[in-house]
Design the sequence.
């Protein structure tokens, strides 16, 4: 019977968060007639059993020490073996550093295509149909596959994980395959930064070309400082003008942020920018143009001159303490 | 060092959302009036990386390949104006609306026709479909190792050393040549073509190859032969639930906003 293979990812001896979401998504597809759910993990049998607790019917533990390199090329033959043994026609991966490489490698090695960063999955007539964003979020595209495997990566936080159920049981098979390591990993460095990192900030204040001049960013910094847990970003247009460091650019070619509160000051909301911040939980727009895209997508908006609005906003926030 | 750079022309990602339209029946984006297509924003970084590596190596050739309509010649010209040596435009009506597998396959065939190469560089993704899979796809089809999302590339012995951007940090890897590397925006600012170079670029050769020229059969190309059919393309309905904050003066509005944000526990 055809089925679904989930490529789970290890994290500190356990499973990464998005692995739980992958298993939750696979269970939904299984309920729609997608077949049984097998999980693959480059890790121990204990980790493989954990995938079963989170929703897999069976699991493969790939234990070859060469897999420690973590590159797609060493993992590819091991995942191929899991596809062959499980008979899976659908393969789901995370849109992670690994999934970004392994998804296309797996698809192209099998002369089929891959859909990246999917936000919706469903079974139609026994086949997978996915929805993903294109054109910086301006469009949605839906895809199907002619052949197998149907390979898709899923966007983080798009699918609900299931609660672990230790009473679930299933077969665990070990796989020894590993690919040739043509790429030698010399080292990994965890990102560190001083101050509040843009990607981690609970609140992001961003400015765009509509600010008119560089000095306006001092005002945005004052606003961020009054909010205490905020970082300051900018649109590509503002960075291209040299008003703010390119490393602090939010957007398609910059940082991807999803803060609890995103305050967009004089940013119209072109797809280049939206692609980097549309995951924000709450958006506030301060813009002179009531028709600006950013105003439409926001929760609260002030349609007025930021030069008058922002200083008063800083004062009031300080007053509220 | 002989380097091949792949570039793509795409609709301008700075196009205002209000000007973005889709022909849902044809499953195509309708070009926005008066907004010219641009070079995919990640690609000039790939060209920049190629030029720096060629200079550091003291010789070789940088060949630019683009798959697209006649207008994609502009994307090639941009790379030539930056300093690349030659261009190849993969141009055929049968290339319209092909999928990522067909694209990778066509580029792999074109690279084989170009012949000898040490390194293939591409942008980390194209900003239109934003999949980022063609570099890996071409590597898989050519049997060449692929290193993605590079922020720095340098020669190291007979190979290269690449600094990669990961989700939560950086990874340093070494690979022998030939190899494929996809370049990210973290690489740094690409050079801006100067007028003199733009004029010189006009004299550089751009060959035009059809599907048949690179050995592709009718079954390898054409939207009807996609391995991953596009079933639907549409603009998602955004339900605007915006609350416009009222007030007699801008200052009043600001005070009202601060209070709303506090009431909603957002600040």
Sequence:
């Amino acid at each position: 019977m055809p089925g679904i293979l989930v490529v789970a990812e290890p994290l500190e001896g356990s499973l990464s968060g998005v692995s739980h979401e992958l298993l939750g998504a696979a269970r939904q597809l299984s309920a729609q007639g997608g077949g049984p759910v097998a999980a693959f993990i480059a890790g121990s049998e204990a980790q493989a059993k954990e995938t079963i607790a989170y929703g897999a019917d069976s699991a493969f533990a790939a234990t070859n020490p060469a897999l420690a390199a973590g590159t797609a090329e060493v993992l590819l033959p091991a995942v191929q073996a899991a596809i062959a043994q499980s008979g899976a026609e659908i393969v789901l991966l995370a849109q992670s550093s690994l999934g970004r490489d392994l998804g296309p490698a797996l698809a192209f090695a099998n002369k089929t295509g891959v859909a990246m960063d999917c936000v919706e999955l469903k079974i139609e007539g026994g086949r997978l149909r996915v929805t993903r964003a294109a054109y910086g979020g301006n469009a949605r595209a839906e895809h199907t596959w002619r052949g197998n495997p149907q390979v898709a990566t899923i966007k983080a936080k798009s699918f609900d994980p299931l609660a672990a159920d230790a009473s679930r049981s299933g077969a665990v098979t070990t796989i020894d395959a590993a690919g040739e390591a043509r790429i030698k990993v010399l080292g990994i460095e965890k990102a560190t930064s001083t101050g509040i990192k843009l990607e981690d900030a609970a609140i992001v204040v961003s400015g765009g070309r509509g600010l008119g001049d560089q000095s306006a960013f001092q005002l945005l910094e004052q606003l961020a400082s009054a909010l205490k847990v905020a970082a300051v970003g900018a649109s590509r247009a503002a960075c291209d003008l040299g008003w703010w460091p390119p490393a602090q650019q939010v957007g398609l070619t910059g940082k991807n942020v999803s803060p609890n509160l995103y305050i967009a000051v004089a940013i119209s909301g072109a797809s280049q920018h939206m692609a980097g911040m549309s995951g924000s939980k709450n958006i506030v727009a301060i813009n002179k143009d009531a028709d600006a895209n950013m105003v439409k997508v926001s929760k609260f908006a002030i349609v007025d001159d930021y030069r008058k609005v922002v200083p008063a906003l800083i004062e009031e926030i300080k007053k509220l303490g | 060092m002989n380097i091949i750079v792949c570039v793509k022309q795409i609709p301008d990602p700075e196009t205002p959302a209000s000007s973005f339209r889709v022909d849902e029946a044809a499953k195509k984006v309708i070009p926005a009036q008066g907004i010219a297509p641009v070079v995919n924003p990640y690609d000039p970084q790939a060209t920049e990386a190629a030029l720096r590596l060629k200079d550091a190596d003291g010789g070789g050739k940088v060949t630019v390949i683009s798959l697209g309509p006649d207008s994609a010649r502009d994307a090639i010209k941009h790379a030539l104006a930056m300093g690349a040596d030659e261009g190849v435009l993969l141009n055929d009506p049968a290339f319209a609306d092909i999928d990522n597998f067909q694209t990778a396959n066509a580029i792999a065939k074109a690279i084989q026709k170009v012949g000898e190469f040490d390194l293939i560089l591409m942008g980390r993704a194209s900003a239109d479909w934003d999949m980022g899979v063609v570099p890996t796809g071409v590597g898989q089809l050519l049997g060449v190792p692929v290193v993605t999302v590079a922020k720095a590339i340098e020669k190291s012995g007979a190979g290269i050393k690449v600094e990669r951007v990961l989700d939560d940090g950086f990874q340093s890897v070494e690979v022998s040549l030939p190899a494929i590397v996809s370049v990210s925006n973290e690489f740094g600012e690409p050079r801006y073509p100067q007028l003199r170079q733009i004029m010189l670029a006009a004299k550089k050769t751009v060959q035009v190859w059809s599907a048949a020229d690179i050995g592709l059969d009718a079954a390898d190309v054409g939207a009807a032969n996609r391995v991953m059919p596009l079933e639907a393309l549409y603009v998602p309905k955004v339900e605007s639930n915006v609350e416009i904050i009222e007030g007699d003066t801008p200052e009043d509005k600001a005070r009202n906003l601060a209070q709303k944000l506090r009431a909603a526990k957002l600040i």
About this structure: Residues 237-267 of chain B form one domain. Chain B has two domains: 3-225, 237-267.
